[in-house]
Amino acid sequence: ILPEVLVRIIIKPENTITLGLYKLIGFIDSAVYTLEEALRVNNNIDFIPSRPLRERFMTRLGLVLALKMNRND
């Protein structure tokens, strides 16, 4: 069993209440993402339109939060 687990979540920054709750339990800002990247990482590539992509698919607007947990705690 691995001693450490990394949990990542993707969230819209305007979702301030949820963002605040995750930060209260220890999540930290990890990265920003585009809509295209979020769809790809979640295996929803069918929702990505053919190229050229519109601006909303290529603009980094979302947040990735991360939390490292130690299984020994």
Automatic annotation (TrEMBL):
It comes from the Eukaryota. This is Uncharacterized protein. The lineage of its organism: Eukaryota, Fungi, Dikarya, Ascomycota, Pezizomycotina.
